[in-house]
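Possible regression after last week's pipeline update?

I re-ran a chain I had predicted before the update to compare outputs. Posting the input and the new output here so someone can diff against the archived version. Not blocking, just want to make sure nothing changed silently.
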Amino acid sequence: MTRSSSPPPIRRIELAPGATFERNAWWAKIPAVAAVLEHGLNLPAGVTFLVGENGSGKSTLVEALAGVHGLNPEGGSRGAMHSTRVTESPLADVLRVIRTPGKQVNSYFLRAETMHGLYTYLEDLPCSPDRDLHDRSHGEGFLTMLERKFRGYGFYLMDEPEAPLSFTSTLRLVAHLDTLRLAGAQVLVATHSPLLTALPGATILELGEHGIRRTGWEDLELTNRWKLFLTAPESFLRHVL
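New output (post-update):
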């Protein structure tokens, strides 16, 4: 089976014409975010992973892209109407997306830290098919949500979807990401998982003090640190225990 020839729904994100913002704001000073504000970011087809340390801007960018695309910033579809506490930066307000012309595509946003609220919202909808999510384990609920909502050609966003998953369940997620890729879907995933980022054919963008750079799995700092740790965990633990 080969990848669909359909063009990616989103071609680029960039600063909206005429948009203004406080350049000393905490979110605007994150190097990766500053790079997007100055140069924009082209989004490739298929699966793209955003990787970096805590505070590198992964979630900030994913949340902003969800917002500017019209998705609920706490997760869900365009029509989702749930909110707990607003913690997103105002980055979405100053960006615009450059879309591929054509019909509106299926879109969904999965955000690990707000999934409980999304489950409750979906459970309360009339005739909801998702009233079983709270009854499942944390990881099984995640995978069920992914397999129900992330289907076929579309534009999908995930923020740390590996958070509740075991090793075996993460492999199941890798397989689902590949199914989406083959269907021509465009998926953007913020992650700390070296297992997820090993997906063949995926684009890896590493965020850090340098801003944003494209890299390979073998050259990813995350990958190399895990390799070193698994080879000699006592060497790492000696410095923290």
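Follow-up from reviewer: compared with the archived run. DSSP finds seven helices and nine strands in the chain. Marking as no regression found.
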